[in-house]
Automatic annotation (TrEMBL):
Source superkingdom: Bacteria
Cellular component annotations (GO), alphabetically ordered: membrane
UniProt feature coiled coil, ranges: none
Organism of origin: Gordonia spumicola
Protein name as annotated: Integral membrane bound transporter domain-containing protein
Domain Integral membrane bound transporter: 294-418
Entry's localization field: Membrane
Keyword annotations: Membrane, Transmembrane, Transmembrane helix
Protein topology in the membrane: Multi-pass membrane protein
InterPro entries: Memb_transporter_dom
Sequence intervals crossing the membrane: 39-67, 79-99, 111-131, 138-156, 162-182, 278-300, 357-384, 404-423
């Protein structure tokens, strides 16, 4: 193999390009509108009931609508209800801690609450990354926990807090499910169209010459099948289109249709991540350590809102980014916060009444959803005043501005230090372990496929698990390419061999006639590749 043919990892992203990326609202207006309406509606009702500025705390439950986006309506209501219930429980638990601590808590009590915030951050990050839930991630749970323990220290009753959060969650459910009235198949149609487009582009571009291109197709296809399973729509015209596209990718020509299995269960995904060097475990460890250190330093320094230091840590580390993207997010967080407290200062000086404040918060929620996917700094510009307006002690404005900037800078600084110094070479182990998991899953498919038909229930489980591990391995390897390019360049040929063998095992299953095991010759060749 010549130097030109040697597989090479992707290059590190250009910092300037990521940092200064222009925000784009394409495809975000509908979910952004739902985010704003789910906040404004319950807050307006609570305000009319005489709860004053406390009605703004309905936002804590309204965030649940964000977790139902892109989900089919058959399960969207369950997702929103679950997220809403967890947000309400978070508000109740940390609201109770704040009420018990009171406004003049001792340093030891403040440190204990900070430890609780850090533990909650670690658990939520682990679950989010292990289940591959994606945005909005753990941030809103950390925000609700921090705000809850602050507002109950300063007079808001825990019962009222739960009422406000419950009202927001109820509105989130109604608003999130409303589109089912005019587009009942919207989510599954969108996911399938994206996967089919990716598959057709792959085939048309002769991407078989570039095995790395299979990863993007695999991710979009797995997502589409998962959405179709969630919608109980794996035997209709939409599923047939996706199945046909997948046949072309694998060069198969089966006459009968058998849908792949859905994503692994929650328990199975958590078990996949239950090792110390998994992507989820590393992200959770770093988030918890950063939150504890940054929050504790904020408490000992006498800053008024140590939860802001915790939020800074969670925002940088919650999705387990590589060091480059994590560092960029940290810089964006500080820039966005500085601009955001300026916007908050303007709103504070305007001394708005409850009605206009509700409108402002709803607009901020819309703007966050429009910008968070493409430019994080701009999104933080809107996140900051939203979080500050939701509630807190009535300290002088200059003190609020100073402390919010200091606390955020502290959280980001600790997060970046942890990102680069804690477990500095763990990405090597994470990548190797992920590749080993691919080999084990591939071996299981070939071993069981010697006797079991490729479309049997057990074989479909093994094939699904191999696909899941392949995507995990590619994510880990891509992170390594950003974290340590020299090591990634040395290791990449090995990762490429593992990845190609895994995808070829899946392709062999697709090309095997239904009702039959994998051919002995094909199994022998693939087993030899995996053994090497």
């Amino acid at each position: 193999m010549t130097a030109e043919q040697t597989p090479r990892p992707p290059a590190r992203p250009a910092v300037r390009g990521v940092l200064l990326r222009r925000p784009s609202a394409r495809g975000r207006w509908a979910p952004a509108s739902r985010a704003g309406l789910s906040l404004a509606a319950p807050a307006a009702v609570l305000a009319l009931c005489g709860f004053g500025t406390g009605s703004l705390l309905a936002a804590m439950g309204a965030f649940a609508v964000l977790y139902g986006e892109r989900r089919p309506y058959l399960i969207r209501w369950k997702v929103i209800l679950t997220a809403g219930a967890l947000l309400i429980v978070t508000a109740a638990v940390f609201g109770s801690l704040g009420a018990t601590a009171g406004p003049d808590a001792s340093t030891s009590v403040d440190l204990a609450i900070t430890a609780a915030l850090a533990a909650a951050a670690g658990v939520s990050v682990f679950v989010n990354v292990a289940l591959r839930l994606g945005p909005p991630g753990s941030f809103f749970f950390a925000l609700v926990a921090g705000v809850s323990q602050v507002v109950t220290r300063h007079g808001v009753g825990v019962g009222h807090l739960v009422l406000f959060a419950s009202a927001g969650a109820a509105a989130a459910l109604i608003v999130g499910m409303a589109p089912a009235l005019w587009s009942p198949r919207g989510p599954e149609s969108a996911a399938t169209a994206a996967a089919v487009d990716a598959a057709e582009s792959y085939v048309a571009s002769n991407c078989a010459a570039d095995p790395a291109a299979r990863h993007g197709v695999a991710v979009s296809t797995l997502n589409a099948w998962s959405v179709l399973h969630d919608a109980a729509s794996t035997d209709g015209e939409i599923a047939q289109r996706l199945w046909s596209a997948q046949q072309k990718v694998h060069g198969a020509s089966m006459s009968a249709f058998v849908a792949p299995l859905p994503r692994p269960s929650i328990r199975r995904r958590l078990r996949f991540a239950a090792r110390r060097d998994s992507h989820a475990a590393v992200a959770a460890t770093r988030a918890a350590v950063t939150a504890l250190v940054a929050g504790s330093v904020a408490v000992l320094s006498g800053l008024g809102r140590p939860d802001w230091a915790v939020l800074g840590a969670v925002l940088v580390l919650q999705l387990g980014p590589d060091r480059v993207h994590g560092s960029i997010r940290g810089v964006q967080r500080v820039i966005g916060t500085i601009a955001g407290v300026g916007l908050y200062a303007i709103l504070h000086l305007l001394d708005l009444q409850v009605g206009p404040l509700i409108v402002v918060l709803a607009v901020l929620n819309v703007l966050i959803e429009l910008t968070v996917a493409t430019n994080y700094a701009v999104a933080v510009l809107f996140i900051t005043p939203l979080a500050l307006l939701m509630g807190g002690p009535s300290t002088p404005l200059p003190d609020q501005i100073r402390e919010r900037i200091l606390e955020t800078s502290l959280g980001v600084a600790v997060a970046l230090a942890v990102l680069w110094l804690l477990l500095p070479r763990i990405h090597r182990s994470t990548t190797r372990s992920a590749d080993i998991a691919v080999l084990a899953a591939g071996t299981r498919v070939l071993t069981e496929g010697a006797e079991l038909p490729v479309d049997s229930d057990d074989m479909r489980v093994h094939r699904r698990d191999l696909q899941w591990q392949l995507i995990e391995a590619e994510l880990a390897a891509t992170d390594s390419a950003c974290d340590e390019p020299p090591w990634a360049r040395r290791y990449w040929p090995e990762h490429t061999r593992v990845r190609d063998a895994g995808y070829d095992v899946l392709s062999a299953c697709w090309r095997t006639p239904l009702g039959q095991p994998i051919g002995s010759g094909v199994r022998s060749d693939l087993s030899a590749r995996i053994a090497r």
